[in-house]
Each structure stands twice: as structure tokens, then as C-alpha cells.
């Protein structure tokens, strides 16, 4: 456990912040640019996981467990969202035979 | 505090009732359970507001929480009463619908009583995940599917922003506790980490998505139009009020020391929200979509209390939210009845309603007057508290903009009244069930009572 903490601390904190910000931005761009519901969904997961990484890094650097506990909550929520989200996507697929979000234009934007 | 436990156990009981085919018992049990939760919640009210954080500082159930729990629970009871006979048309398994609505309410009670960013996040998500399901309960209706998917993708997207903001604030301060973050701000006034400012911005983006404030509102009209009317009613009243309670709690208890940083941002958001909501609502042909845009504009008025943050903000939001919720309940209750007869959401469905259904036309008129903010209704009192809060901080231009918007809003609210009283149409009498009569009559009376004697509820939060 000690060695794990010191391994994580071998990389400066700024690098973790930049890495998380880059992964988060990739997720945001994915949501905004891709048209496939599943890929959008994966991009959202990417955003959540970048937050997990950031929280873990902060938690180790501060020697405070609260950040890691928060990560568990985020993971539990992500699992719940996958369950609901995939169910919604399956429902759409059954009605339209497509998961392209461009077919979702019956209601005007 | 007991109320959260009751509201969490109640849906499980309802699911068992559904399992054993006790369909008739669902609504009475749900309403009785909610009344019990209401009583336990009211008992937590203290004159001096001296509640302490409980569960290791996770929750703080003070008078603010009591007031917003009470309005959420009462609105939910009224909405459940309107659901009598509504869900049966969608599917035979109606216990699930009641259960999911109540799970969502449990999340809402957490949202209005959190004392730690972890609990805020959990509360928002318990509420949102339940709503993603509720928006899509008409499985074969394409609009409902579309609403569910849009709501889900936008909700998950905004959660990402909210979480990144929370993570950055944790990185800067080393705590999730609201008081801890405020103390950190007070102790380091000169050299606040840029991480912290970025975190506050991202949290604003995330919360504005959740409450549907422009420019993050674009999902609102589609989702509100596509979802079943009763669920739209739940989303536009209880959920929106809880969102603002969480918003206000965070900014008044936690980020208050750096108010000069975030007030300009929220000021711009408020003005954009008011204009976008009101001007777009003018062009709508569908009553339901008009109500969606009107809920955006009401989000703009509710933001006033956060922009002009002060001791009176909580009371102002409470008054406005109460007025808005009960008026919306009448409006959507009327829409459900009219739609059952005419099969349309448009304004023309209301033509000539006053001849055949004077009672329905009267309560709908009261609701529209209250939403438009005409004196002697609760809506006027709500706007009065909001505007006087803004004036006390010398934000005169903001109030002028808001009054212009209130005048614009009169146009589209009065279209309904004109359609009901001055347009003629051959129509049958709309049948109003007894449950609806009770809910609509009660809400109309409450609207007028609060409009004439605002002090009955204005002293709940100091």
C-alpha cells in the first residue's frame, strides 16, 4: 500500500490534472460530435472516469480517503446509468431499428 | 430525517403490493406514506433554526430543508392523486410507476438537505436516474422514447460537468464538506487556487443543465413535450424546485465569500433565460410546449434569488416555487383532461371550454393569472419577493428586464384564457373525476389564499 502511494506520487500532480482534463475534453467532444447513441454513451463514461482518475490522484496527494470513497459512489452511479441507458437504447432500437440520434427529430430541437 | 427513511421504504412496499396484485391499495398506501413523511418532516421544524449536521456531517435537516421537503411532498401527493386512472392506460404494471416516482422523491429530499457535496451528487443522481425511466414509460410511443433518450444523454453529460467541478474543488480544498469549503475560502481570501474557480464554473454549468436555464436549456422543450403529461408535471414542478433548492444551498452556504466572482456569470444566464423562455413561448402552438418554455422563463425568475443572494433568498425561492408549483399542477391537470377528450395538446383544444365546464375554465384561469403574476394570486407574491430582493441590492436594470418579460408572458398565458372564454367550438362536456376536482379546487384555493395572505407561508424560513 505504501509503495502504491509512493508510485502514484512519483508523477507530479499537475500531470494528473492535465491528463484528466484531456480525457474529459475527449469525452465532451465525443458527446457533441458523434451521432451514434452507444458511442455518445461511451464518451459520457469517459468523462466520468476522468473524474475518477482526478479524484484518486487528489486523494493520494492529500492523504485523505474521502476522494476515494467518492470514486466508489461514481462507479455505482455509472453502473446504474448503464443499466437504465442501455434499456432506453434497446427500447429505441426496437421502435426504429436504428440507434443513430439523427432519427430523433420528431420533436423539433 | 425520518422522512427520507419513510420515502425510501415506501416504494419497496409498493413494489410488493404490485407483486401481490393489490392494485387498488397502491394509491392509498402511497398517499398515506407520504402524509406520514410530511408529518415527520414538519416535526423537525425549529423556531430558532438550530439544527446540527447529522450522519458525520452528511445531512443538515434545518428549516430550509423542512420547507422545501414539505412543498415537494405536497406537490407529489397532488400529482399522485391526478395519476388516478392515468397509468392504467399505459400498462398493467402500475406499481412500478408509483415506486419510481417515490424513489425520485427520496433523491429530492436528499438534494434539499445535503451538507456534503457527496450527498448533493447522490441526491441529484437518485432523482435523475428515476426520471430517465419515467420519461420513457410509454414504450411504444416514439415521442416518449425520444424524450427519454434525450433526457438521459443530456443528464449524463451534465453530470460529468458537475462531477469534474466537484473533483476540482476537492483538489483545491481537500474536503467535500460545505462548511469546510466555506472555511477554506474565508481563511485564504488572497490566494484562491485557479482550480477552485474552474470548479465553480463547471458546477454552475452542471446545475444549469439540471434546472434547465439557458443556454443549457435546449433539451427542456423536447423532453417536456415528449414525456407523458403527468411526468412532465412532476419534472417541471417538484424536480425544478429541488434543483433550485440544491443550487441555492450550495451557493449561499458555501460559495458566498466569492460572490463577486460568480454573480456576473449568473446574471448573464438569468437574462438570457428570461428572454429565451418568454420570446420562444410566444410562438408555440402547443399548450404543452408553451408550458415547457414557460418553465424555462420561470427558471429565469428563480435565478434572481441566487443572483441577488442574501438572507431573504431562501424565502423568495420558497414563495416563488410554491406559487409556480401549484399553478403548474392546475395547468397540467387541465391539459390531461382536455387531451383525453380532444386528443390534442394544442391551444385549440381549449376553445369554448368555459361554456361546458365553467369550473375547469375558472381554475385554469386562476392558474394562468398566477403564472403571469397578476395581483391577488400567489404568482404575484412570488415575483414581488424576487424583485424586492433584487432591488435591495440595487440591481434596477435586472428588475426592469424582468418586468418587460413578465409583460411578454401575459400574451401567451392569456391566449389560453381567450381560447376558453371567447372562442366558440362545438364540444362535449369534459368529464372531471372527483380526484381531479379535489386537486384542482385545492390548488386554486391555495393560489388565491397565498396571494391574499402571503404571511401564511412566508415565515417558514427566516
From TrEMBL, chain A:
InterPro entries: NADH_UbQ_OxRdtase_chain4L/K, NUOK/Mnh_C1-like. NDH-1 is composed of 14 different subunits. Subunits NuoA, H, J, K, L, M, N constitute the membrane sector of the complex. This is NADH-quinone oxidoreductase subunit K. It comes from Mucilaginibacter achroorhodeus. Keywords: Cell membrane, Membrane, NAD, Oxidoreductase, Quinone, Translocase, Transmembrane, Transmembrane helix, Transport. GO terms for biological process: ATP synthesis coupled electron transport. The chain crosses the membrane at residues 15-33, 40-61, 67-93. Belongs to the complex I subunit 4L family. Its main location: membrane. It is a multi-pass membrane protein. Its EC number is 7.1.1.-. Pfam families: Oxidored_q2. GO terms for molecular function: NADH dehydrogenase (quinone) (non-electrogenic) activity; quinone binding. HAMAP family: NDH1_NuoK. One of its GO terms (cellular component) is NADH dehydrogenase complex.
Automatic annotation (TrEMBL), chain B:
GO terms for biological process: ATP synthesis coupled electron transport. It comes from Mucilaginibacter achroorhodeus. Belongs to the complex I subunit 2 family. One of its GO terms (molecular function) is NADH dehydrogenase (quinone) (non-electrogenic) activity. It comes from the Bacteria. The chain crosses the membrane at residues 6-22, 29-48, 60-82, 94-114, 120-137, 149-170, 195-218, 230-249, 261-283, 290-311, 317-338, 359-382, 394-414, 435-461. NDH-1 is composed of 14 different subunits. Subunits NuoA, H, J, K, L, M, N constitute the membrane sector of the complex. It catalyses: a quinone + NADH + 5 H(+)(in) = a quinol + NAD(+) + 4 H(+)(out). NDH-1 shuttles electrons from NADH, via FMN and iron-sulfur (Fe-S) centers, to quinones in the respiratory chain. The immediate electron acceptor for the enzyme in this species is believed to be a menaquinone. Couples the redox reaction to proton translocation (for every two electrons transferred, four hydrogen ions are translocated across the cytoplasmic membrane), and thus conserves the redox energy in a proton gradient. PANTHER family: NADH DEHYDROGENASE (PTHR22773). Pfam families: Proton_antipo_M. It is a multi-pass membrane protein. Keywords: Cell membrane, Membrane, NAD, Quinone, Translocase, Transmembrane, Transmembrane helix, Transport. It is found in: Cell membrane; Endomembrane system; Membrane. This is NADH-quinone oxidoreductase subunit N. The lineage of its organism: Bacteria, Pseudomonadati, Bacteroidota, Sphingobacteriia, Sphingobacteriales. Signal peptide: none annotated. Residues 116-409 form the NADH:quinone oxidoreductase/Mrp antiporter transmembrane domain. GO terms for cellular component: endomembrane system; plasma membrane.
